[in-house]
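Changelog-adjacent note: as of this version, every example in the card shows the full chain rather than a window. The one below runs 414 residues end to end.
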Amino acid sequence: MSVHVFPQLVIPETLAAGPGPGNTDARVLQRFAAAGVADHMQPDVLRGMVECKHMLRAVWGTDNIHTFGVAGTGWSALDMMFSAVQPGDKVVAFANGTFSGIDALTLRIKAATPAELAANPLDPQAASVTVIEVAHGTSVSGEDVERALAEHKPKWAFMAHWETGSGRINDLAGFSEACERHDVLGLVDAVSSLGVEDFRIDDYPGVAGWASCPQKGICCLPLTYAPVSFDDRYMDSLRATGASTYANHPIFEARHWGIVDGQDVEKGTYHRTHSGYAVAAFHEALRLTLEEGLAKRSQSYIHHEDVLRAAVETMGCTVTSNMTSLVVLNLPPALAGREMELVQHCRAQNFGIWPTLSAPVQVRIGILNQLNPRAISDIVMRFAAAIQDLDGTVDMDAVTDVLDQRYGTAIAAE
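Full-length structure tokens:
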């Protein structure tokens, strides 16, 4: 049998201008690459984990002792958070886009009885789970949550904070307040909001469990550590019922991070072969977040998203999102129906914008870790050029005027 050795893999530089992952900060990449070859029990690796744990609590804005990182991406954190949901548990889930829809499917799988799972293993119709479908392009409101919890009286309620499938921010305060009123354990997907919006999770006591990711607002590498945080109510429920996972078991993983019986201890007591490189990268990403400060970073996202929004609207696009790290838009009427063609054209030029992943097909342009006038101007000009390449009409003088007026500079013309 002949063996073919492929040429060395070369991945070109790409401008990640979609919903995530974002372009990793150079300081994070440097720490990742500079980490010495060490085993996972090397003292500096263990010290780094302890420091990450404490920095993460500051980033989340919480006193929850069970706050740590799950090895992997946001999916790993979500799987851990949902692991407390047991077959037959009553759940209400709100879905207003691709990812909250996938989360709702996960909850149906977790809450399905053995018979329900056997009947349809990939799409079980769990009788104990109610999915409230909110129209694409619309946010989940506190009133939506209040009505559903009052009617169904579940043990668990779920909502995505920021739904990147449609670019909508959902009502976190309304969700938390409704969960408190109805004595429901709230679960929140904060994959796209952590590190972008300035909020403290302890201000939302109706939420018992939170899950996020390393590769979006935290601007770290995928497959490093996905942040989670659980309050005492969540942990009490978990201890009473067990978890529907072993790989991402919250109690075992907490022990890996030196959290045992609700207390920080000197050393982890659960063995997990982790990566010193991942610890180094995650540590630097958290340092960057705290050095800059969430208030400052949040305001920067608000400012630069406003510039991008104004620029694409000047090109004739209609923006339907309200997130500050992502613009979701409809193309000008003359290009309607050519969204996928435009996205593929951009990606062929290493300009990584995205379509929506479910109907209606729209275009998504993100600004994760692109918080400066030069980066936003580059995104705007590349997008304008793509529209023109498809024979669309763009008033480049008007677009340049938007950038000049918002940034007070002629950077777009450089």
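Structural remarks: The chain has a mean pLDDT of 94.
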